[in-house]
Amino acid sequence: MPEESFALEFLDPDPDPAWVSDLARISPARARELMAEAAGETAVAQHIRSVYEAAGRTFFAQIRAPLELYALVRALSPRHVVEVGVSSGISSTYLLLALRKNEGGTLHSIDLPTRQQGPAFQEGVDSPVALPPGRESGWAVPPGLRTGWDLRVGPNREHLPGLVASLDRLDLFLHDDLHTAENLTWELSTVDGKIPPGGVVLADNTEWLEGALDRWAEHKGVPVRYRSGTSLGGFVQPSRAGP
Ligand SMILES: C[S@@+](CC[C@H](N)C(=O)[O-])C[C@H]1O[C@@H](n2cnc3c(N)ncnc32)[C@H](O)[C@@H]1O
Fold first, then answer.
1. Distances, alpha carbon 102 to alpha carbons 71, 77, 89, 139, 234, in Å
2. pLDDT at 8 over 70
3. Domain locations along the chain
């Protein structure tokens, strides 16, 4: 596969600084600057590319907005980031990269891995999120970014309540695991009390969530902002109490 087309699959060619600007309340110019900072981390992209190639596949289902995630973390300076759904670890990589650049903050990730059935990926049999043989959740995350990463392997129902109870606050939450309305609503009700005003909540693949993200945000009286070209949505936690 030519280098160019690999890059197009992994880093979206059409990023959306306006989405970052809306959610992080920074200027579009600053959002662009932060995303360019992430795009300049070529060693990280090269690492992911080479481990993907070694695993025999060039694409694993991933968030389509890694540069935007990076920019959000740089702009918000979160103390705690929680993501549910790791797979190979594209979102994790860019969240960790930004936290390292911030020189503070912790990423807590939860993943119940889905595994490839055989040695080679089988179209129609394996999920695009499936881990190749011998790989574990977050396997593509560069080793240099793993220090301090709180990665919990297992179902969200087992890990999320205890994790949330242990945190004083949760400044950025990303849902990217089982995309059902019921699961998202359970996750949002679990994290809600720890998200401070101005904190950001994101959910990917909202096309499968039967409007659950919009309903939650509507109840809070805030708009959901959608990242262009995707169904990745997010809202800013308002100052009043949740539903
Ligand atoms: C779309 S992938 C995550 C992609 C990742 N955010 C990225 O950008 O690379 C979804 C992951 O969530 C995991 N998952 C599914 N159901 C889960 C559950 N109930 N609890 C935790 N993880 C789950 C899947 O096995 C898979 O590893």
1. 11, 7, 20, 23, 22
2. no
3. 3-236
Q: Residue 60 pLDDT > 90, yes or no?
A: no
- Closest atom of ligand 1 to 155 CA is 20
Which residues lie with the beta carbon below 6 Å from any ligand 1 atom? Answer: 61-63, 84-91, 110-114, 129, 155-156, 176-178
- In residues, how long is the chain? 243
Alpha carbon distances (Å) from 233 to 34, 46, 110, 114: 20, 28, 20, 24
The whole-angstrom separation of Cα 236 and Cα 197 is: 7
d(CA 203, ligand 1 centre) in Å? 12
**CA 240 / ligand 1 centre spacing (Å):** 31
pLDDT in tens, 155-212: 999 999 999 999 999 999 999 999 999 999 999 999 999 999 999 999 999 999 999 9
Token representation of residue 232: 């990745």
* pTM for the model: 0.95
Which of ligand 1's atoms lies nearest the C-alpha of 110?
A: 21
pLDDT, position 240: 66
Q: Which of 72, 131, 141, 178 to mutate to test the pocket of ligand 1 (most atoms within 8 A of CB)?
A: 178
The three-state secondary structure class of 109 is: strand
- Which CATH number is associated with domain 3-236? 3.40.50.150
Report yes or no: 109 and 86 within 8 Å, Cβ to Cβ.
Answer: yes
Q: Which amino acid is at 212?
A: A
